[in-house]
Specification:
The protein has eleven helices and nine strands. By secondary structure, the protein is α+β, with helices and mostly antiparallel strands. It has two domains: about 20-180, Regulatory protein AraC (Jelly Rolls, Sandwich); about 185-290, Arc Repressor Mutant, subunit A (Orthogonal Bundle). A five-stranded antiparallel sheet has the order 1-8-3-6-9, with helices on one face. Strands 2-7-4-5 form a four-stranded antiparallel sheet, with no helix packed on it. A hairpin with a 2-residue loop joins β4 and β5.
């Protein structure tokens, strides 16, 4: 499977509903095509707890290696993606919730004082959580409690989850208020990165060039390559090739020929497509179609 995402990279999946805007799910990185979930964002806050294995989790320009027992805070509307490390699978808990769960209603004091100042801060997009830091260990324990409640919901399930998430938010808020607000990362850089990624993911099926990408971001070609490599830790065209392969997977599953799948995802040569496919999927397109590959 792979995430269902709109053209602007917003995830389509609902994270709870208006009455109780919380979604709790056990996830496995190995269940995603290519052992990775693609870049996306959503207005909800996401908390992650690694139950087993390890993964690389990237939020905007920050990259984290998360191992068993670690956690992560991902702020509202931050771009994020993740992929497996090595051959071992990674099982994790994902808890997403709308800030409204904490502040109650629009215009409330809780919204103005305790949530908006964090969710609107584009320079505070994420925070890794480690068990060797006492206050972060407390958050991880509360995520574990949420996990236990979700497995066997009691009569007061929603109330318990609400209380635990508010307690987590209080810890995050207190830490946030203690931090100096001068950051090297700028909103302009994040917007530029979003522009580049969105352009490639919108036009991946076309014959796009470095000049096209740089022009969309209003920077020169050399700066575009340097900027992307600095923040994404891979080249523009490595990313584009990987994304094209990911987009070709559902086409192969639908029964399209290798040539058609290649052409519809921006590859002019099916032989080159097969070569890149093996690089990222560790199998040939034919093996993938037959279901004989191993994740």
């Amino acid at each position: 499977m792979q995430l269902s995402i709109e053209k602007n990279r917003k995830e389509k999946k609902l994270h709870g509903d208006y009455a109780f805007p919380v979604h709790i799910s056990e996830e496995s990185i190995g269940s995603f095509e290519g052992n990775s979930f693609m870049w996306h964002w959503h207005p909800e806050i996401e908390l992650t707890w690694i139950r087993s294995g390890e993964m690389v989790y990237q939020v905007n320009t920050e990259e984290y290696v998360l191992r068993e027992g670690d956690g992560l805070f991902c702020n509202s509307s931050a771009l994020h993606s993740g992929h497996r490390i090595g051959e071992e699978n990674c099982e994790y808990l994902s808890v997403t919730f709308h800030p409204r769960l904490v502040y109650g209603y629009n215009g409330s004091l809780l919204q103005e004082k305790y949530t908006d100042r964090i969710t609107s801060d584009s320079q505070w997009t994420s925070l890794p959580l480690y068990a060797d830091t006492p206050w972060q260990k407390t958050i991880i324990k509360k995520l574990q409690e949420i996990y236990e409640h979700s497995k066997s919901p009691a009569v007061d399930y929603e109330l318990e989850v609400h209380i635990l998430l508010c307690q987590i938010w209080q810890l995050l808020f207190c830490h946030y208020m203690e931090q100096p607000k001068a950051q090297t990362q700028t909103t302009a850089h994040l917007e530029r990165l979003k522009k580049i990624i969105t352009y490639m993911q919108t036009h991946y099926a076309e014959s796009i060039t470095l000049e096209d990408i740089a022009g969309h971001a209003n920077i020169c070609k050399n700066e575009c390559c340097r900027f992307f490599k600095k923040y994404m830790h891979l080249t523009l065209f490595d990313y584009l090739l990987f994304y094209r392969i990911q987009e070709s997977l559902p086409l192969l599953r639908k029964g399209l020929s290798i040539t058609s799948a290649a052409q519809q995802t921006g590859f002019s040569d099916s032989c080159y497509y097969s070569k890149i496919f093996r690089r990222y999927m560790n199998c040939t397109p034919t093996e993938y179609k037959r279901g004989s590959y191993e994740k």
